[in-house]
């Protein structure tokens, strides 16, 4: 019986014409709870780029379709108690049917952007319910607010790939398998993600030893990555906890200046403290560093943490291959789960 129910529900197809008109729900509906940085200047097309952008809502009826800009890419869908599954907006898709054979009654859905969208320019353009269906009141926003600032490890780069010799692909990137997403879900947190693969605090991967552009301090005030015309209003999300996981790209290829890294990191933490005076700021090391780069970064983070009583330190276990690797030797899904378990346990000590 379960197999018979799931098969039609998980059908992913273009919305077809029917005799009765579906009920359109604007993306700016008050009955939708969003998480993450979204540009809502155009209420008919909400724009975003960061992974982890989430839409949650409750509704009645027997079907649900999702409208987004063509080419938006991959989203993960959690519908009622059905296991999460992926949908993909290719350049030919503007509406995708999420479910078409639901039992009549109340339903809940959570849709999360699984990839980095700065090349895809994704937009939420609304939802379609079955004829006669209605939206129900939005889910309650979680009280705990966490911001994750990071690089590819935070994005979920390669978490669906089992061959470390394979390179990056949007098809194997999945933020919902990342340590950041899993930690936020475990703590039932409202979450904001500012992350990009290859980015650093003072230089991007393989960049000049003296430093580069396109770093986190330069991008942090933007609602969307590389969109300097659209500034983020920091009052829209006031985090209780800020987790920073950077340093892997800053120290990449051994060609780094640790003093420049420390100066940039210290200045950024001071800026965060000015923006969010009550936040607990947690400085992390991820699982991909080892040897001298790891020791150097730990030293920097320890020194910065010593200057502020509400700046904390936590090191996640370096990967050793026993849990496999993702694409380009990034954390596998099992490694990411281990990181999340470790970090969740630590963050509980800060919120309990």
Summarize, please.
With 352 residues, this protein is an alpha/beta fold. It has helices spanning 2-9, 152-155, 179-186, 216-219, 258-275, 291-305, 333-351; strands at residues 23-25, 33-35, 46-47, 54-60, 64-68, 73-79, 85-89, 95-99, 106-113, 123-129, 145-150, 190-195, 241-245, 280-285, 311-315.
Question: How would you characterize the overall build of this protein?
Answer:
The protein has 352 residues and is an alpha/beta fold. It folds into two domains: 23-136, Galactose-binding domain-like (Jelly Rolls), CATH 2.60.120; 145-348, Rossmann fold, CATH 3.40.50.1110. Helices cover 22% and strands 23% of the residues. It contains seven helices and 15 strands. The strands form three sheets. Strands 1, 3, 5, 8 and 10 form a five-stranded antiparallel β-sheet that branches. Strands 2-4-9-6-7 form a five-stranded antiparallel β-sheet, with no helix packed on it. The longest helix is centred in the C-terminal third of the chain and has 19 residues, at 333-351.
Helix/strand-derived category reads: alpha/beta
Tally of individual domains: 2
Any idea what the CATH architecture of the largest domain is?
Answer: 3-Layer(aba) Sandwich
CATH superfamily of the largest domain: SGNH hydrolase
Stretches where pLDDT is under 50 for at least 5 consecutive residues are 1-19
Q: How are helices and strands ordered from N to C?
A: HEEEEEEEEEEEHHEHEHEHEH
What is the β-strand count?
15
